[in-house]
Design a protein that fits this description.
Layout: H1 3-16, H2 18-41, H3 63-69, E1 74-75, E2 77-83, E3 86-92, E4 100-103, H4 113-126, E5 134-140, E6 156-161, E7 168-172, E8 177-182, H5 184-197, H6 206-233, H7 242-274, E9 287-288, E10 308-314, E11 317-325, H8 327-330, H9 338-351, E12 356-363, H10 374-386, E13 393-399, E14 415-420, E15 427-431, E16 436-441, H11 443-456, H12 462-495
Antiparallel strand pairs: 1-9, 2-3, 2-10, 3-4, 5-6, 6-7, 7-8, 10-11, 11-12, 13-14, 14-15, 15-16
Amino acid sequence: MSSVKLRKTSFVWHRKLAWFGLLGLVLFIISALTHPILSWTGPKAAKFRPPSAQIKPESLHHIPSILKRHNIEWALVIKIIPSDIGNVLQVTEKKAQSRRYFDLGSGDELMEFDRRHAVWLANYYLGNQSPAQVKSVEFKTQFNSAYPWVNRLLPVYRVQFEDDANTSTYIYTELNVLAGMGNDYKTIMQSIFRNLHTWSWLNNVEYARILIMALLLICVMLLTLAGIGLLVLMRGRKNSTLTSKAHRYIAYIVALPLLCFCISGFYHLLHYGLVDTHRGMVTGDPIDLRGLSNHVKLNEFPTSELNHASLISHQGNLYYRLSLPHKAAANPDTSSNEEHAHHAARVARYKGQPTEAGGLYYSAITGLKANVSDREIAMELASKHLHEPLDKISESKLITRFGMHYDFRNKRLPVWQVDFDNSVGDKLFIDPATGTVVDRLVDQDRYESYAFSFLHKWNFLTPFVGRFWRDVLVVIILGFSLLISCLGLAMKLRKGI
């Protein structure tokens, strides 16, 4: 096709697609702006790290008698955690059910403690020196519009407070973490984003949602491509109006970023709308506790206090897994500048910091130190989860920071990444302390993640300028895109088309 015909084609389609393209562009831009604005102005936690535990090694001697006394023969997770009354034994027996707690000294069960623990954690993360007035506490076992799938963790408690902002927190008690946070302002902003950006109001007719959004995105893409054709093939006229000149000059700035937004958004829409994803957390198999010895004392204990202690199963054997604090967790930022320390902690939330220095294993039957490692357990769990032989594993490595493949929404560090040499390119992220498959990433999900991260969220800029200035740049581009849309609309209305 000659340059003349290509220029004419670009001009025709730029005019034909103007109304639909402008509609889609304005809807997507306005809703996209809520995301960085909310990250700057939305509710923020006062603390970003879970409460630290200081576990005396002899505390583990109480675990067998407590489990036997309360006839607990099977459980998913057994661990010691910190609480408002000190360290307690936490037992998760079944998926999507509240956890049970036991006093390590008396062995008594702490009734309805999971709810109380969630309220205490909510106050802890909000920085309340004294417990705030609680409006409601809900136990949630399913994702919804207020707490969507991207948060990953279930079940959670939604703790809502009696304050002017109507603050609510989502607490995942197994990890003692804040899984989400909101208030009336955030609810409004998220509603704008969901309804205008992802069209969640059409979730009940999913294929209609995908079709309409896809058509709008195609219109915006073709409108942008036609505009790029005009920029390249048509010179600006000397007698053009100020509006026309501004429209053209701004187009040089936003044309390529807009095209990247559209392509990655279209890919994201089709991938999560039409392709089955393997992502998400899967709890390990129940632990058989019937062979647990009641009178075992562990030998060769570490002399210092522990920060993690759990009971796990490996190849049919029971082990106590103990760990010492990681240096970064043991020595947090104690800067005299409170604002600087708070900012540093918030930045660390997205980068992540491990809370432990690795696992030490002791037989729960003999009490002797065992020649077992986190790597070995992670590889076995990954192999069992995928029903793949161990020789299919191509690599295993410790993950101590959130990043491209394993992001901060998982809330859990450190974990082991186990890669498989199979047809789908599996990467599994394993928590050996609880036997949990925290996440699974296959090639098709990984490729989409790259496109969305680089072309839609511009995460490639984060290592160079940080999250804040990355968001500022995105807002500037979106602002210019909104301006060019208004200028284009003014030109259309002036010509009466």
